[in-house]
Write a structure and sequence with these properties.
By secondary structure, this protein is an alpha/beta fold. Helices cover 34% and strands 24% of the residues.
């Protein structure tokens, strides 16, 4: 049986933009489908929609200004301090457009997830949907993975496939992938919160529900 936690898992979301994945996580929590506490949302952009969404739902929203730090490492230390202050146990990157430094990854090893709009290991990095169209693949999708020191290279937790249509543009494909992302991310977080994930080498093993 999956052991039950005394307190809901405390998660922190890092986002830089629109925040629709953040919204999907908030909706899953508020809808009782995800037993977690969203402790804080952190952004590297002052005016991003993700921070507005957090505030609207009474979630602490913190802007950490990259201009205030000499380099990426000191910036990441500042973000780590915010996460520690809010006693975050799992960090979810959701449209966070920065590459985290090894300092960040090592501090939270096995406790950082990212969502990517493609079927990794194909098309990592920016503009995954455009890369998929340009390559001519027939199936793309979304991936949630643990974050390691590479770019989109960490162990894969779950994936959803999305067929590519002949008349797809980057926008239409991105929109259909996004629908899947909104299902996938809360599901991955729930598996983590229920203690059902273990990382074995490159593989993430998912223990069956009790
Ligand atoms: C999502 O499609 C996410 O997968 C992607 O950015 C979008 C953010 O949307 N992330 C990356 O490309 C990371 N390399 P959102 O702000 O509405 O959640």
């Amino acid at each position: 049986m999956t052991p039950t936690r005394a307190e809901p898992l405390r998660i922190g979301v890092l986002a830089s933009g629109r925040g629709s994945n953040l919204q999907a996580i908030v909706d899953a929590i508020e809808g009782g489908r995800l037993d977690c506490r969203l402790a804080v949302v952190v952004s590297d952009r002052a005016d991003c929609q993700a921070l507005d969404r957090a505030r609207k739902h009474g979630v602490e929203a913190v802007f950490v200004d990259p201009k205030g730090y000499a380099d990426r490492e000191t910036f990441d230390r500042a973000v780590l301090a915010v996460l520690a202050e809010h006693r975050v146990e799992l960090v979810c990157l959701a449209g966070y457009m920065r590459i985290v430094t090894p300092i960040f990854v090592r501090a939270l090893s096995g406790r950082i997830m990212n969502i990517h709009p493609g079927l990794l290991p194909a098309f990592p990095g920016l503009h995954a949907q455009r890369q998929a169209l340009e390559h001519g693949v027939k199936v793309s999708g979304a991936t949630v993975h643990f974050v390691d020191e590479g770019v989109d290279t960490g162990p894969i937790i779950c994936q959803a496939a999305v067929p590519v249509r002949e008349d797809d543009t980057e926008e239409t494909l991105a929109a259909r992938i996004l629908e899947q992302e909104h299902q996938l991310y809360p599901r991955a977080i729930r598996l983590f919160a229920e203690g059902r994930l273990s990382i074995v080498g490159r593989r993430v093993l998912v223990r069956a529900d009790a």
